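Bench notes, afternoon.
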Amino acid sequence: MTYETILYDVADGVATVTLNRPEVHNAMNERMRQELTRCFGEVATSDAVRVVVVTGAGERAFSAGADIREFVEPQVPVRFRESRRRVDFRAAMDRCPQPIVAAIRGYALGGGLELALACDLRIASEDAQLGLTEINLAIIPGGGGTQRLPRLIGRGKALEMILTGARIDAREALSLGLVERVAPAAGVLASAQELARALAEKAPVALRYAKEAVVKGLELPLADGLRLENDLATLLRTTEDRVEGAKAFLEKRKPRFSGT
């Protein structure tokens, strides 16, 4: 895959997607949104990719959000809404069965934080600044922020962040459960890739089903979520990797999972 605004690389089952506009803090313009939508659409059907890492180029920002230069032109409401529906990279991320890990260095603001919220796991650098700052531009988060953030950290704190447009640092984000880990600034990408490689060594189907059970289960009543978990667990009993895992355990060796 070749792109203008992002970089894409796959190694050892881990795909790394890098927002590549460091001169504007990796702000997302229409071309980047289109390329992210296409990229995640292709990743979702790739057997070669077991885990995805998302990061930003440079040392200053994961992403500062939307490119404000695109905000000065008036929008025709219906046309704008249809355009957003066609180019919805976060929906493409939602369709990815692979775990997605965000490596957040520097600013993750507005749409940049919404991108991180669409990931499954988040590792922030010690110098990270996170916030949904749209209210300062007379708009509200429109990429899932008003829905994903309260589900992650609770109604009250999410409302405080959204209504004030405040930024929080990595340590506060960790205490709130907004990120799972904090790493030194220079090592945040390496930490994310180390985690991704560890995940990529797991049985691929089990890894995807575990994600599905949790993510989809949270959208269901408990009884239906338990039924989904049971169905997925039953299906995994029929895989060759389940047999390989048991044999490797008994033989005290590292399993060789094939994804079947």
